[in-house]
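Hi Y.,

Following your request, here is the sequence exactly as I used it, all 252 residues.
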Amino acid sequence: MALLDADDPVSQLHKCAFYLKDTGHMYLCLAHEKIIQFEATPSPKDPNKESISDGAAWTIISTDKAEYTFCEGAGPVTSPVTPVPVVTSISANGGGDVAMLEINGENLGPSLKVWLGEIEAETMYRCQESLMCVLPDISSFRKEWDYVRVATHVPVSLVREDGVIYHTGLLYTYTAEPGPTHLNNSGGMDGKVLKSARTQGGGPVNPYHQNSSPMGMGSLMTSPRNAISMSPNDPLQYYYRSQEEDNCKYRL
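Below is the corresponding structure, written out as tokens. Let me know if you'd prefer a different format.
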């Protein structure tokens, strides 16, 4: 018999019946290793009881709890929010313009996009356990930055195509970079903007120049970290190469 007005909590080894909502007297039933619907018979003696078969009486052998958070960012949706994607780990691959972020977890689908903060990342679906996305440049979060000046933490979220937002609870960290390195007036490397000092004759002062003439032309002394050469066409322009940077840079 199924008791219709039972309100006691369900725990391990309890017997219960699963009533199918808005079906009258239909219950979930196991018959011949298949899940079917079973129509119960109202009890003639007690209106709060219904007669069910043994297959419609289920025994709770274990209990578990799962809690999910989501947000309907574009308003209420008609489709179920389940299955809820669960992210277990994230890892970065590559670097520069091809830096990728790998998302690992469960219930990942092709309708999900990876968002870092308020920036949508180009997302590629691999399987139900993995997504890949292109990491946005730091300038997407700090418009005045052309490199990562200080460590920056960005929340990672998954957004479904209908606007349902699933917060992963994970952060991606943009690690601070050393930044561009330039020569100072004394010839050292200090990370500041390179300034062009001049002699009384108007030419640039070469910090590795020996016996500089007023126009800055003469022999060069090589530094193990920097090699400087004068442009033969324009004495006001000079070049330098740093071991930390693979490209030649110049300033006027």
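Residues 190-252 have pLDDT under 50 and may be disordered.

Thanks again,
Q.
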